[in-house]
Amino acid sequence: MPRKVIGECKLCNNVKLLCDSHYMPKRLYALLRAWQLKNPNPVTGVGGELKQMSDQYRGHVFCHDCEDLLNKNGEKWVLANIPKDYGSEFPLHAAINRLTPKAAGKNYVLCDVTGEQGFNVKQLVYFGISVFWRGGVHVWKTSTGQRAPSVDLYGEEESMRRFLLGDASLPDTVVLTLDVWPYKKVLQMLYPVLPNHLGGCPRYWFYVLGLLYALYLGNNIPTGARSRSAKDGFVAVDQNAADSVLEYTKHGLKSQRQGPKITEMHEAIAKVRSMTPPKQ
Ligand SMILES: [Zn+2]
Q1: Gap between the Cα atoms of 186 and 183, Å rounded
Q2: What is the Å distance from ligand 1's center to 276 Cα?
Q3: Nearest 5°: CA angle at 45, between 147 and 23?
Q4: How many folded domains does the chain comprise?
Q5: Does residue 12 belong to any structural domain of this protein?
Q6: Whole-angstrom Cα distance, residue 259 to residue 136?
Q7: For 252, what's the count of Cα atoms within 13 Å in the CB-facing half-sphere?
Q8: Which of 3, 102, 189, 238 has a CA between 20 and 30 Å from the CA of residue 279?
Q9: 33 domain-assigned
Q10: Which residue range forms the structural domain that includes residue 207?
Q11: Which of 26, 3, 7 is nearest to 15 (CA)?
Q12: CA angle 240-242-244, nearest 5°?
């Protein structure tokens, strides 16, 4: 019998029966399981290292109604639009490649996806904000007690919570950006929220199967980030940003004892790197 926990739900703040909540959506772990490989458990960032694990960051954090809200406003739609397996169809990648960019640079395109087929800006934004916020309001742990990296939301917990409840829009001190993975085969990884601060501007990122989100906080958010705010319908394809995630992954893989899956992942990454860049 699962343990019954009653406590204050971190989203609605009501004292209720709490669910066994997940930091990153539970179903993502299932999508990441590579059944073709000897050890099918997903590779993810745990305690600053890359590990293959069946374990997940979880805790009794949200009530049933709030779990429902998180699911219907973001998770469900996002999970339906990311690849289901390595090399399988990636609906958002296909959708963005059909668009004429608003801006383009070297290895970079920016599209306004407002009202475009294949995109639901509201759901994409809600999902992104919900993951960053989850990272900031709870110490998530695996069943063996490994903690997710800590996240300081610089006092924006409440404004983000109100946004997630549908009570307020996001303030100007919170800017979310989204990159769609530029390569057809997406990196099969799950990175929880990690810091990558700019001088004077707190910045975090997380990555799930083809979606690279960044969150900028405070009064010194660069104009460049503001002008590609996902809230305003902008989504980018940024090869350099993707390559830095690949570098980060490669670096993480090198520092690990490499299991069979890790080695194959490494090879897969090398293959991905040699693929054709997005059309510009
Ligand atoms: Zn609740």
Answers
A1: 6
A2: 45
A3: 55
A4: 1
A5: yes
A6: 32
A7: 22
A8: 189
A9: yes
A10: 5-273
A11: 7
A12: 70
DSSP states along 82-140: S-SSTTS--HHHHHHHTSPPSEEETTEEEEE-TT-TT--HHHHHHHHHHHHHHHHHS--
For ligand 1, the distance from its centroid to the CA atom of residue 72, given in whole angstroms, is 14
Closest CA to 190 of 174, 217, 213: 213
**80-93 burial by CB neighbour count: b if 16+ within 10 A, else e?**
ebbbeebeeebebb
Ligand 1 centroid–CA 138 distance in Å is 14
Residue 250 confidence (pLDDT) above 90: no
Is 79:28 a contact under the CB 8 Å cutoff? yes
Q: Could you tell me if residue 194 is inside a domain?
A: yes
pLDDT value at position 260? 47
- Report how far ligand 1's centroid is from the alpha carbon of 73 (Å): 14
**Prediction pTM value:** 0.87
End-to-end CA distance of the chain: 54
Task: Please give the average per-residue pLDDT across 256-269, as a whole number.
Answer: 53
Ligand 1 center from residue 122 Cα (angstroms): 21
Query: Which pLDDT band holds residue 280 (cuts at 50, 70, 90)?
Result: very low
Residue 279 domain-assigned? no
Cα of 154 vs centre of ligand 1, distance in Å, is: 23
Q: Look up residue 184 and give its two tokens.
A: 């057809």
